[in-house]
Amino acid sequence: MPELPEVEVSRLGISPHLEGQVIHSIIVRKRQLRWAIPEEVHQAEGLVITAIRRRAKYLLLDTHKGSIVLHLGMSGKLCVVDSNTVVKKHDHLDIVMTNGLCLRFNDARRFGSCLWQGVQDPELKLLTSLGPEPLTDDFDGNRLFELSRVKSVAVKKFIMDNKVVVGVGNIYANEALFMAGIDPRKPANKVTKKRYLQLADIIKQVLASAIQQGGTTLKDFVQADGQPGYFAQQLLVYGRDGEKCEACMSPIKSIMIGQRNTFYCDACQR
């Protein structure tokens, strides 16, 4: 599943090509994604894309009437292509510009979504309950500590709760907890304030580093085959079950927490 850094890199990749452009038409080939694409998205036709924003893992294409809200789901990909580029399997949605460019959404598993947020409409429920962005001052260790006092769930599950902070997905939760030396199984309310202050800073560092690393692939968002170049991660524990910990040479272990694969070093993480 694309995580926050991949979504942010997607935003950075498509924005220079689409911001300030007029939407000519919206072509829906498969209306039923995670939710049915509403007819209201066609209200954006003829309007200028004034900005492209990210909220958690959602991308919002803003116009003066409202925003097209995109989510990549489990397997979704966005790319900018010429509007006459041959349509491939799983190309479910085209947002075509008057200049001939097209934002194409490909989603093999169809867990992604395309919704409409009108400027006069109540905010979509999927956006109302979101916590702060992790790379802003609204998120810090004090918030983690205060919210955790009544939480007995595993700390990994706690920091992946979008009501606590958005965008700390499975990969980066594993990596941040390893770097902070915190056992992912530890109850959230048993982690000290000092350790949460450190963890919040590490979460920011891990996500910012991943976004920076992904920035080297931005040129790939417009190319002949229309495939965005998502970036390879340099991961310390995620996906390394049985391999040696780079810090202590103990074997990396894997368990399930909240139905998600969790990787950790029981020698380094307490």
Can you lay out the helices and strands and say which pair or pack?
Layout: H1 4-18, E1 23-28, E2 51-55, E3 58-62, E4 66-71, E5 77-82, E6 91-97, E7 101-106, E8 113-118, H2 125-128, H3 141-148, H4 155-159, H5 170-180, H6 193-214, E9 253-257, E10 260-264
Helix pairs in contact: 1-6, 3-6, 5-6
Textual characterization of the structure:
The protein is α+β, with helices and mostly antiparallel strands. It has two domains: 4-128, N-terminal domain of MutM-like DNA repair proteins (Alpha-Beta Barrel), CATH 3.20.190.10; 141-264, Helicase, Ruva Protein, domain 3, CATH 1.10.8. The protein is built from six helices and ten strands. It has helices at residues 4-18, 125-128, 141-148, 155-159, 170-180, 193-214; strands spanning 23-28, 51-55, 58-62, 66-71, 77-82, 91-97, 101-106, 113-118, 253-257, 260-264. It has a four-stranded antiparallel sheet with strand order 1-6-7-5, with helices on one face. Helix 1 crosses helix 6 (193-214), helix 3 (141-148) packs across helix 6 and helix 5 (170-180) packs across helix 6. The longest helix has 22 residues, at 193-214.
